Amino acid sequence: MDNLDKLIQEHLIRKAQQKTRRHFIKNCAQGIGGLALGSIFSGCDPLTNQKGKTGTPFTERDLNPLAVLSPPFNPKIKSVIYLHMAGAPSQLEMFDHKPVLHKLHGQDCPQSLLEGKKFAFIKGTPKLMGPQAEFTREGEAGNWISNYLPHFKKVIDDVAFLKAVHTDQFNHGPAQLFMHTGSARLGRPSIGAWATYGLGSENQNLPGFVVLTSGGKTPDAGKSVWGSGFLPSVYQGVQCRSKGDPVLYIEDPEGISRNLKKSTIDAINKINKEEYLKYADPEILARINQYEMAYRMQIAVPEVMNIASEPENIKQMYGVEPGKESFANNCLLARKLVEDGVRFVQLFDWGWDSHGTEHSTAIDLGLRNKCLEIDRPITALILDLKQRGLLDETLIVWGGEFGRTPMQENRGNKKMGYKGRDHHGDAFTMWMAGGGIKGGASHGQTDDIGFSGIEGRVSVHDVHATILHLLGFDHEQFTFEFQGRPFRLTDVEGEVIHEILA
Amino acid sequence: MEVLKQLIGRLHPVIVHLPIGFILAGLLLQWVDRNKKDFVKITALLFMWAAIAGLVACVTGYLQYLGEGYSFKNIKTHLWLGIVTTIVVFALYLRLSENLKFPLLKKLPETFLSLLLLLLISYTGHLGGSITHGDDYLIAPLPNNIKSALGFETYEVKPIELSPESWEEAQFYDDIIAPILNNNCVSCHNKKRAKGELVLNSEEAILKGGENGDVLIPNNVEESAIYSRLILPDHDEDHMPPKDKKQPDKEEIALIKTWILNDAPFDKSIGEMGLQKSLFTSFFPKKANEDYPDVEVVEASLDSINTIKKQGIHVQRISTSSNFLSVSCINRSDFSDKDFIKLSPIRQQIVDLDLGRTKISDAVFEQIALLPNLTVLKIDYTSITGQEMHKLHALEHLKVLNLTGSNFKKVYLEQLYGFKGLKSVFLAYTGLDAADNRENNDKTTLKIEFGNYELPFIESDSIIY
User: Chain B residues with CB inside 8 Å of A63's CB?
Assistant: First the structure.
């Protein structure tokens, strides 16, 4: 009984909320204006020719929140694949070649560098640790790459490096949030949500924003890194699993046939249509659309998420392991999704937090294994997109939430059993490849030991501004009204990094 | 009392229209009545009212001058002419009234007084307007060629362009600072107007400063008004340029700052000052939209777009600022040759066409050839063999042709070289490979992608560290 009372109470509150004076005045102005406009413009309804009772024309977005919109500027890319190495990979063992650090191995870190800096675990005066990998120059552009990534050199000329990215966060959760939503605090939409909100998605049978995790740990910041923040929740990332049902409960329950499901949805939609004829609320049409889309997705999603049907040589190239959750499987899925018109695909891999507390987080052991896990699939992804003509219209972004220190971690001010590096946000490497990107470019430079950027430093906001630029947006103009002010992905900062653009 | 003075003074711009109205009404009536002379009395009455109203206008005008702190230099002509106008209108009243007692006035022809009055009222009114609205109020909206024909100085906005090759040779002042000042400041700060007694179009004038002293102090951006006023908030009274005028770009403001912080030289090049390229990249020539044809097309009608959309065919503008359209059949896998006719209303606008995974056949090329601006064509995973491909040779803008996974036949490979502007062709998964391609010895820019990439197993693949 208590619960019923609560429900009634909530209903009354909702009802009252909808009838505030402010709402009344607002509705009056819009309603009457709409009535007038509707009669003036009747018959030249811009998009759908479907009219509500008031005659106010609906936009396509009213009916389908994922309807495609054109960006303000000519876009260079249609889709984005964002590869996030959660835990923060060490730039010093992968891309940022620091021979001087090698010479200084084992020496105390100069006090001047430590002053005013915060580290997650480093205490006292840590010792510098030389790179644990060997570097060579590869490709026509001659960019440096370590022997931890033996396959990647094959595509190195397709990639543009950002060697001096910096962030102001040094713990995983906030740093991941910052990297994906432009703010270290909760509540902002992720890049993928902005992209699908701004552009919609072409394939009406698939979600516009898909998230794939490699199994194991999910990102520390939780699902907010692919959340929709204050944008309508339909723009949040849809997490698909590469093992079992791709989306939970996507299969019809036992005993329910596809036909029965269809008649159920038809019946619901019939009632909804009557409801719509009565109230002319476009929300109802959107709901009808959503039911139909969900029904179509039941077929389309398992189809696109099935990698078994791919040719054998492709499976080998990526190194997939069907039936498991793996980064390699996800890379192949990313290509399939982008090929099918999905706007934003986000991959999260885990286990990159190389503190050196155990074998799996040792810079020379665990990290090397992680590198081998991603080396082949990422190289394959770039080659596969390239041969299908998709690389020119897709952007691949690779990075972690920050980088790692040139100093060896000394947790508890002690020498540790394995070699590790602490969190470090002053300078780390990210790379981009694909449409609109100048392959072979390398922007930014760190100091001799890789502690800070000394040239071409770029912020997380700059990276966001560049992604939006490639999608056809001016990051300063692309806003959403919330709590009385327009919000941007890049807040009040960000500059497009023209140095890596073709 | 001070308040009252100011308040009455502020009524001047309103009151002043009374004598103007009376005078114009009087002059008009006088002209209409020039032969019959039926309304002389009324005309005289109008001029009397005008004289009284003119007196009030003079008094309020003087109070406004006192109360609002105008400098006498700026308003003196208006003030004196206002008084003269009032006297002349009074004289005209006397001249027209019956019991004229001044024989001297009688000698003056009526027409002379009327014409004089018309001139006076027009010019005095114009001066008054210039004081309140600024003296370029009427000139500013005119196009530059008319302005210069009228003998006014024009400050044509000249875009600043640096070349990506020789940017270091550009003179910082002559090629960057001077144009920025010209484009944003000089229309008010020139020798003729010199607002705030400041002129900004030459080295000497900039160093001389304005009524508040120096505007440029090298290496001190806070004290250099030429910079510090630019970055004040818009609503600040001292913000420059005034908020309703064109504002400099943030890159331009940054360059003024850089210039001041680097000793504000008037004769050094960028290279000599050793500055970073990134400061200047936004002034490099923008690459024209090279992705799509450089032709103007009209906007496709919404009706035809909507009709096509209703068929489940996806149509969208490339961007909201472009009339070019991108069309995709991603949601219409049953699209076939006979459906193509539906696209004909937008054939001029289509630049990007995706017919991948549809049921089209080689016969479709005849119709695709009718899309004059087509730039990207995707016909991947279709039963296309390439037989009729040559029909597309007329498409001069076609750059990308995606035939991945189609039935493309080796015999038609040669046809691909018949395209003028074709840049890349994708032939992966067609069964062809690079060995099928002809020796590429002529200077073609065409890149054919045969795919078939492999990542052979290497030893480290199986190592677990």
Answer: none
Residue B142, in any domain of the structure: no
Cα(A307)–Cα(A335) distance, rounded to whole angstroms? 11
Asked if A453 contacts A446 with a C-beta cutoff of 8 angstroms, the reply is: yes
Same domain flag for B31 and B110: yes
User: Which of B453, B461, B464 is the mutation pick for testing A, counting most A CBs within 10 A?
Assistant: B453
Residues on chain B bordering chain A, Cβ-to-Cβ distance under 8 angstroms: 278, 281, 289, 291-292, 302, 306, 314, 316-322, 328, 330-331, 378, 380, 400, 402, 404, 424, 426, 428, 449-455, 458, 460-461, 463-465
Asked whether residue B214 falls in the same domain as residue B97, the answer is: no
Chain B residue closest in CA terms to A151? B455
Out of B223, B248, B283, pick the residue that ends a domain: B283
Q: What is the number of structural domains in chain B?
A: 3
* A309 in B contact zone (CB under 8 Å): no
A72·B316 Cβ contact <8 A: no
Which among B278, B319, B426 has CB closest to A472?
A: B319
Query: Three-state SS across B255-324?
Result: HHHHHHHCCCCCCCEHHHHCCCHHHCHHHCCCCCCCCCCCCCCCCCCHHHHHHHHHCCCEEEECCCCCCC
- Closest residue in B to A338 (Cα–Cα): B330
Taking CA–CA distances from A206, the nearest residue in chain B reads B331
Q: Check CB contact under 8 Å for A70 and B289.
A: no
Residue B295 located in a structural domain: no
Please list the pLDDT of chain B residue by residue as tens digits (465 residues): 778 888 888 899 999 999 999 999 999 999 998 888 888 889 999 999 999 999 999 999 999 888 877 778 888 899 999 999 999 999 889 888 876 667 777 777 888 889 999 999 999 999 998 888 877 778 777 776 777 777 666 666 777 888 888 888 888 898 889 888 888 888 888 877 778 888 888 888 898 888 888 899 999 989 999 999 998 887 788 888 887 788 888 888 989 999 999 998 998 888 888 888 778 877 887 665 578 888 889 999 999 999 999 999 999 999 998 999 999 999 999 999 999 999 999 999 999 999 999 999 999 999 999 999 999 999 999 999 999 899 999 999 999 999 999 999 999 988 888 888 899 999 999 999 888 887 665 667 789 999 989 999 998 888 888
- Assigned domain for B174 exists: yes
Q: Are residues B436 and B319 in the same domain?
A: yes
Domain boundaries, chain A: 79-246+305-500, 251-292
Look up the ipTM and state it.
Answer: 0.85
Domain carrying residue B210: 167-283
The answer to whether A429 and A403 are in contact (CB under 8 A) is yes
Name the nearest CA neighbour of A416 among A484, A356, A363: A356
Residue A70 forms contact with B (CB below 8 Å): yes
- Residue B59 and residue B193 in one domain: no
C-alpha pair distances (Å), B263 with each of A182, B184, B258, B416: 38, 22, 9, 59
**A275 Cβ under 8 Å from any chain B Cβ:** no
**Two tokens, residue B276:** 């970073």
The domain made up of A79-246+305-500 is a member of CATH 3.40.720.10: yes
Tell me the helices (H) and strands (E) count for chain B, helix number first: 16, 7
| Cα distances (angstroms) measured from residue A257 to each of A122, A244, A253, A289, A304 | 59, 20, 8, 21, 22
Q: Which residues pair with A162 in a beta bridge?
A: A430, A443
Instruction: Tell me whether residue B225 is in a domain.
Output: yes
A49 touches chain B (CB under 8 A): yes
Residues of B in contact with A292 (CB under 8 A): none
What pTM was computed for the model?
A: 0.74
* Contacts B378 to A, Cβ<8 Å: 389
Q: CATH number, domain at B359?
A: 3.80.10.10
Same domain? B216 vs B271? yes
Measure the CA dihedral B242/B245/B250/B253, to 10°: -60
